[in-house]
Specification:
Elements (H helix, E strand, L loop, with lengths): L5 H8 L1 H4 L1 H20 L4 H10 L9 H8 L3 H14 L11 E4 L3 E6 L16 H9 L7 E2 L8 E7 L2 H13 L3 E10 L7 E5 L2 E3 L7 E2 L5 E2 L5 E3 L15 H10 L24 E12 L6 E9 L6 H8 L22 E9 L6 E5 L4 H9 L11
Parallel strand pairs: 4-13
Antiparallel strand pairs: 1-2, 2-4, 3-4, 5-12, 5-13, 6-11, 7-10, 8-9, 11-12, 13-14
Helix pairs in contact: 3-4, 4-5, 4-6, 5-6
Length: 385
């Protein structure tokens, strides 16, 4: 199926294919070395890449100019660039990797907070995938993420080693065959310990942003996208602009709303629909003392997302009146934690080849545990909840 916003999707997932000039300054040497290693000097592929991007001191040229110089069609130039770039392995970086499970088909790790899953492109490092690539170098496998965690989120992350395993695991995660459980530190009107509630609200993207990058200091610079819970869409808004705050204000004014608070919006609307179906089940595991930040009670909440939308747990928690601590987009600021208080605690999937059930778990990191302790919240023991 064709993606509705192909360029936007590519900009997030494979920017090196959409705008190669954007990586030329930071990854050119790595790319050219891999091209020569794989295809050899003077090969048709090397000639296309050298003329297109100016490798080896040659001036860069557009696809049509390269095609004319080599006596081929411009389509051949474009497909060659695409094929060559995708064949270059991820940059492998040595680093600490907390392996939870590993077999011939998959690798499960405990992702630390403030580390992006993916680098800005295939030719730069600074992400968990680069460390995983180094870990798998001896096997020749390339790590394939089958789901995502925000830069600030910690916990269980599943990587496939083969294309078939990625397809199988991705099907489990998108088709309801997997079970995910997250721990959240929240604040809001006090709910009784053990109380359960479900949020069933579609989610749509109405803001602009960029993927996380690894800054020179090693600190992650994370996404600043905005998403909203949807309830209805007025016919007056054919498309809600991703860039204009005024258009968002006009949109919600049409619904009779004075403003559109983050995470609790009544509606949003995009060109081709009402957003994506999203459902999250919550259970209060513990209630602590009143927190000073927003005036509500601190709570440890277990979230079980039944769908996998971007920012789903964070948005649904805010919509339910229990926003996450440390969440700069939808939650409540706190001096106790420098990130959103969200941890991917458990994941249950089936092994792609054998069908055996895998129960993966990652203990909350130290910053999460310290914040919980400061709020008088006891984290669940192994095997609980």
């Amino acid at each position: 199926a064709r993606h509705r916003d192909r360029k936007g999707h590519m900009a997030h997932c494979c920017p090196e294919l959409l705008d190669p000039e954007a990586w030329a300054g930071g990854g050119a040497e790595h790319v050219w070395a891999r091209v020569l290693e794989r295809h050899g000097p003077g090969s048709p592929a090397a000639s296309v890449m050298q003329l297109r991007f100016g490798f080896g001191g040659a001036g860069s040229q557009g696809p049509q100019a390269v095609a004319a110089a080599l006596g081929v069609k411009s389509h051949h130039v474009l497909t060659t660039v695409h094929r060559v770039l995708r064949s270059i392995p991820l940059v492998a970086e040595a680093g600490e990797l907390a392996v939870l499970h590993e077999d011939d088909e998959l690798l499960a790790v405990a992702k630390p907070p403030q580390l992006p899953v993916s680098p800005p492109n295939r030719f730069r490092g600074g992400a968990l995938l680069n460390v995983a690539a180094h870990h798998l170098a001896r096997t020749g496998a390339e790590p394939r993420p089958v789901h995502r965690l925000d830069c600030e989120t910690s916990g269980v992350l599943l990587l496939a080693k083969t294309r078939e395993a990625a397809r199988h695991l991705g099907g489990q995660l998108s088709g309801g065959g997997a079970e995910k459980a997250y721990l959240c530190l929240c604040e809001g009107a006090e709910r009784a310990r053990g109380s359960e509630f479900t949020v069933d609200m579609p989610i749509s993207h109405v803001g602009s942003g960029r993927h996380g990058i690894q800054a020179g200091s090693g600190q992650g610079v994370c996404s600043d996208k905005e998403f909203w819970c949807c309830r209805s869409a007025p016919p007056c808004c054919g498309r809600l602009s991703s860039h204009s705050a005024a258009s968002r204000t006009a949109h919600f004014a049409a619904l009779g709303l004075a403003r559109a608070p983050r995470g609790t919006a009544e509606a949003c609307h995009r060109a081709r629909g009402m957003g994506c179906e999203a459902q999250t089940a919550f259970r209060v595991l513990a209630v602590g003392r009143r927190a000073c930040h927003g005036g509500g009670s601190a709570m440890l909440v277990l979230a079980r997302p039944r769908t996998g939308r971007t920012h789903q747990i964070r948005l649904h928690a805010a919509h339910a009146g229990v926003p996450l601590l440390g969440d700069s987009a939808y939650g409540v600021a706190t001096p106790l934690l420098s990130r959103q208080a969200l941890h991917a605690w458990r994941l249950r999937v089936r092994q792609p080849r054998t069908g055996a059930e895998l129960r993966l778990a990652a203990a909350p990191p130290d910053d999460f545990a310290r914040c919980a302790a400061a709020l008088g919240l006891e984290l669940p023991r192994e095997g609980a909840a």
